[in-house]
Amino acid sequence: MSLQLKAYREQAHLSQDDVANAIMVSRQAVSRWETNKTYPDIDNLMSLSKLYGISLDELLSESPKIKRKLALDAKQPQKKSTKFINRKTYNANDESFELITITLLSAILPVFGVFIPPYIMFRNNKFNRYFILIYIIAMIVFLVSLFNCYLFLSDIFTHSSTEIHLD
Question: Could you tell me the pLDDT band of residue 53, with boundaries at 50, 70 and 90?
């Protein structure tokens, strides 16, 4: 089973890290599955079958096609494959517009603008369509909100009493 998991991952042109991020497990877990140290649970097997675009039966059964491919791969010298991300697989998980909207709404109140953008940057992943734009917007909102909080607090603590004399 470990060889099949690795073969399907390579066939999808994904790294272990890509698979781990897509199904929300650690990269080490994917590595342990592919080295036959542990086995994925049923939920992860279902996620893997969706990710690779195959049925659960096909993922679990020994495929002669995979065996032949593994035999051919062992004979051929290793070549570096170009990284390819199957966008169809990840569009269902694209949170770009939600993350941008939440970030921009957090800019309304400076206090929220200090705490929400770091969470948005943590939540953002490279499978979002506007991955870099989300980071840029979140960073700008964070910095502007931090500055606004500084101004607000400096006004409170440096309040000087001014008297107006009318003559």
Answer: confident
Q: Could you tell me the residue ranges of all domains in the chain?
A: 2-81, 91-157
> Which CATH fold topology does 2-81 show?
434 Repressor (Amino-terminal Domain) (1.10.260)
Is the Cβ–Cβ distance between 78 and 110 less than 8 Å? no
Higher pLDDT, 89 or 93: 93
Burial environment of residue 46 by CB neighbours within 10 A (0 to 12, 13 to 18, 19 or more): middle
Rounded CA gap, 167 and 156, in Å? Answer: 30
In whole angstroms, give the CA distance from residue 155 to residue 136: 29
Q: Are 51 and 22 in contact (CB under 8 A)?
A: yes
One-letter identity of residue 159: H
* pTM for the structure as a whole: 0.43
Burial of 27 (0-12, 13-18, 19+ CB in 10 A): middle
60-80 tens-digit pLDDT:
776 666 666 656 665 666 555
Instruction: Write out the two tokens for 62.
Output: 């020994």
Using CA atoms, how far apart are residues 45 and 132, in angstroms rounded to an integer? 31
| Three-state DSSP class for residue 74 | helix
